[in-house]
């Protein structure tokens, strides 16, 4: 086995495992974190969501970018430009593995902004809402609705790197 073949195999393992890790990271938020938020009062749930979101913003872009770049290199190394099946499959794997950012920007921004606005409300505004039972109930319903929408959108977002993992894995084991 040549040095290039060894490097490409190692990069394939890193790309596939990185994409799988990222898929799990993304899905775990919807499966583990979001379901417990409605147990807290709306203002606290929004703040907890905002903290989780801030952590995700710091970690997720790089976690999605790395396997995407590795798949892009593998596509190039496997002649994607000449439409070689392995190269095209690696290119598709890279597109799927790195699709979280476009998905977020196209589908989740309004929900993110609405939840962040509630989390950032001044304490006086929150206290005023908490004193009025009608406003409080309305806020509880709003946060529950927004968190539920975010959970669904995030769960869907987690499928993109899963698809990238499956395509990259299929190439890795010689199915493509």
Could you explain how this protein is built, in words?
The chain has 176 residues and is an all-alpha fold. The protein has one domain. It contains seven helices and no strands. The protein starts with a helix and ends with a helix. It is found in: Membrane. The chain crosses the membrane at residues 20-40, 52-76, 88-105.
Chart the SSEs and their pairings:
Layout: H1 3-33, H2 42-77, H3 85-97, H4 100-119, H5 123-131, H6 133-157, H7 159-172
Helix pairs in contact: 1-2, 1-6, 1-7, 2-3, 2-4, 2-6, 3-7, 4-6
Based on Cα principal axes, name the global outline: elongated
Give start-end ranges of low-pLDDT stretches: none
The SSE order reads HHHHHHH
Biggest sheet layout: none
Mean pLDDT: 96
Cα-to-Cα separation, first versus last residue: 20 Å
Q: State the helical fraction.
A: over 70%
Structural class: mainly alpha
Strand content: under 5%
Overall structural domain count: 1
Compute the CA-based radius of gyration.
Answer: 20 Å
Strand elements, count: 0
Give the number of helices: 7
């Amino acid at each position: 086995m040549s040095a290039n073949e060894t490097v490409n195999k190692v990069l394939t393992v890193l790309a596939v495992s990185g994409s799988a890790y990222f898929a799990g990271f993304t899905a775990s938020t919807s499966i583990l974190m979001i379901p417990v938020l409605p147990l807290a009062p709306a203002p606290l749930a929004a703040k907890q969501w905002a903290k989780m979101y801030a952590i995700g913003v710091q970690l997720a872009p790089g976690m999605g970018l790395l396997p995407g770049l590795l798949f892009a290199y593998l596509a190039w190394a496997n002649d994607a430009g000449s439409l070689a099946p392995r190269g095209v499959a690696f290119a598709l794997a890279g597109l799927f593995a790195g699709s979280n950012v476009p998905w977020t920007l196209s589908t989740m921004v309004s929900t993110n902004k609405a939840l962040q606005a509630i989390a950032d409300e001044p304490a006086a505004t929150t206290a005023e809402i908490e004193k009025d039972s009608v406003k409080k109930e309305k806020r509880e319903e709003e946060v529950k609705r927004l968190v539920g929408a975010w959970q669904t959108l995030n769960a869907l977002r987690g499928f993109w790197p899963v698809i990238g993992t499956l395509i990259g894995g299929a190439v890795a084991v010689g199915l493509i």
